Amino acid sequence: MQHFTPVIVGVFFAALVVALTAVARRLPVPPPILQVAAGLVIALIPGLVVPELEPGVVFFVFLPPILWAAAYFTPLREFKANIRPIGSLAVGLVLVTSAAVALVARMLVPEMPWAVAIALGAIVSPPDAVAAAAIVARLPVPRRVTVILEGESLVNDASALILYRTAVAAAVTGTFSWGESVVRFFIDAGIGTLIGLLVGWLIIRASRWTKDALAETLLTLAGPYLAWTAAESLHVSAVLACVAGGLYLGQHLSTAVSPMSRLQTRTVWDLVVFLLNAIIFLVLGAQFGGMLRTVPSGTLGFALRNGLIVGVVAIVVRLLWVPVWTLLPRDLGRRGRRDEPPPNGKSAFLIGWTSMRGIVSLASALSLPRLLGDGTPFPWRTEIILIAMCVILMTLVVQGLTLAPIIRAFRFPPEQTHLEEETLARREALRRGAEALEDLSREPWVDRRDVEWLRTELRDRARLSEHHLGGPAARRRLRAAMIDAERRILVRLRNEGAISDEVLRELEQELDLEAIRAGAGEAR
Fold first, then answer.
1. 156: CB partners within 8 A, 6+ apart
2. DSSP letters of 149-177?
3. How far is residue 176 CA from its own chain's centroid?
4. What is the mean pLDDT of residues 54-67?
5. CB of 241 within 8 A of CB of 230?
6. Nearest to 101 by CA among 388, 394, 397
7. Nearest alpha carbon to residue 238 among 154, 176, 181
8. Short-list 101, 61, 43, 71, CA closest to 317
9. 377 has which bridge partners?
10. Coil/strand/helix, residue 377
């Protein structure tokens, strides 16, 4: 029976994830918070031993695909247009937060060495990509706010981890050089980025050679792990390697693979990211509970008090920092550089308030060495882990629960730019399709009846495109009902034995694509 234990555990976690997701749909609570709470409850079950999380598992199993997927779906144009606020948050704010937390930590614990205090600051400074995306994804947030938050989460882990490793090395060896650290930062970032671009290029080349949808999907799944392993082997930024590879793939995959491969790859990645996100938050909760059961009460109270103070400092520093880059473009953006206009007050506050910490902070804290170079225990290691856990839990609960009410209270206007660009893209795609049809109609192998049929189809698609975004809601509802009726009759034909399951799946896929175009992709 013991051979089936991992399978049973996997089935249990899958059922738990499904149940929590269903409950979260019906409650005003983000799924990550429910998942953390569930993990905490599981860890507190009497007799259940929660093993300590291996940081290497987080950094190799969870982080590469999460970063790769986030980069793949990041719009490069908007990323470049907002590079100044993204850089300010991902690098400048990480350094400022680390310094502020280190200063406060020294005030709270004067015996803590400066290198250890800076390591604590680097641990709690980067907001988590997983937490932000999981909570903000289904909320009506302005597109530019989403781009800035996603862009920040792609880069801040790299800057925080480089600072963290520098501080830990200084604590272990007792030596530190600012010049060497700065040079190392740019070397790590540059070589890591080049590795990611190379891996992305190799995947595109291999995809064009394989010409098989399953193989191409497998290549995209292997990409982040290949980029991470190569960067770690050279001791450079594995985070930026995954980010660069994901961005490259997002720009070139459309021209390298077939439509079926693109649909299949998107579906597989949606499932992978969903599962990884759920497992990450369950593991977070379980680690909280396991630590609470093993830490002495005196140490726990001391660390929780300091953790609350550090968490408040991290939140306040971010709220004060965001207006800095909000105002900077007004003065500096006119010197030959065209930046997007600064966000308004509501958007700036939302960016400042969205700063949940997550699995990267926990893994970094657990990665602290147990011994210094002289063989003595690493100072304040247990307390730092507890402080990091407290900051993670505090930001997830306080900010995660308040984001939805704040966004609803702000009543952001609907995004018009995205809708206008979608309309333009549909119109231009139809125009080019019509031109291609006219060019091909002169070929000797073409039947004129097929040409007329396709012209009629193009006209129908053009009419649908004109009314897709601006038409009455009743028309879209009618179209969704028609598609649903077509699907039901197909299922009935299959049940009666008139058509096979294969025919049902093929036609159902076409109807599903039509439903998505009609805006009924979420309809049940």
1. 89, 90, 91, 93, 94, 125, 126, 127
2. HHHHHHHHHHHHHHHHHHHHHHHHHS---
3. 34
4. 85
5. yes
6. 388
7. 154
8. 101
9. 371
10. strand
Three-state DSSP class for residue 416: coil
CB 365 within 8 A of CB 388: yes
3-state helix, strand and coil shares in percent for the chain, rounded to the nearest 5: 80, 0, 20
Buried b / exposed e along 86-125 (16+ C-beta atoms within 10 A): bbbbbbebbebbbbbbbebbbebbeebbebbbbbbbbbbb
3 state SS of 371: strand
Cα-based distances in Å from 166 to 105, 159, 175, 264, 422? 18, 11, 10, 41, 46
- Hey, which residues does 371 pair with through a beta bridge? 377
- CB atoms < 10 A from the CB of 126, how many? 31
What confidence score (pLDDT) does residue 524 get?
55
Q: Count the Cβ atoms, other than its own, within 10 Å of residue 429.
A: 12
Q: What is the pLDDT of residue 134?
A: 65
Q: Is residue 256 within 8 Å of 207, Cβ to Cβ?
A: yes
The candidate with the shortest Cα–Cα distance to 312, out of 27, 110, 97, 25, is 97
The residue ranking higher by pLDDT, 230 or 182, is 230
- pLDDT for 290 equals 80
Backbone CA torsion sign across 162, 165, 169, 175: positive
Residue 417 CB neighbour total at 10 angstroms? 9
**What single-letter amino acid sits at 21?**
T
pLDDT at 520 over 90: no
Distance CA 384, CA 361 (A): 11
How many residues in the chain?
Answer: 524
Strand, helix or coil for residue 88: helix
Half-sphere exposure (CA, 13 Å, Cβ side) for 446? 14
Choice between 368 and 515, residue whose per-residue pLDDT is larger: 368
Please say whether the beta carbons of 272 and 62 come within 8 A.
no
Tokens 């590079």 sit on residue: 83
Cβ neighbours of 180 (radius 10 Å)? 11
pLDDT at 32: 82
